[in-house]
Design a protein that fits this description.
105 residues; mainly alpha
Length: 105
């Protein structure tokens, strides 16, 4: 292929040779521009993906955090309810003993 190119170059006139060189340069430039555009598009895609995933991660973290808070709150409320029940029971027993002692005397 290289040899063919050489022979072609030899048979060309000066003007044709210049045109061929210009054409090659132009093609190289276009190729570079296209590659740059592709790389740029790729980086934009990556950035968008990263933004989307961070948003999702934040949302999920908030959701888990709220879940944990709710769970803790529920635990606290259940404990408080148990304590309240115990106090009510103790109070009613106390009251009944008071009544018992009052009647016995």
């Amino acid at each position: 292929a290289e040899q063919k190119k050489e022979t072609r170059m030899n048979t060309m006139t000066v003007q044709e040779r210049r045109d061929a060189v210009e054409e090659e340069k132009r093609l190289k430039r276009e190729n570079l521009i296209n590659r740059h555009e592709e790389m740029h598009a790729e980086t934009i895609r990556k950035k968008e993906h990263a933004e989307r995933s961070t948003v999702l991660l934040k949302a999920f973290t908030m959701y888990k955090y709220v879940q944990v808070l709710r769970h803790k709150n529920n635990k606290k409320l259940r404990r408080q309810a148990a304590v309240d029940r115990f106090h009510r029971a103790a109070y009613s027993i106390q009251k009944s003993w008071r009544v018992y002692f009052a009647l016995r005397i």
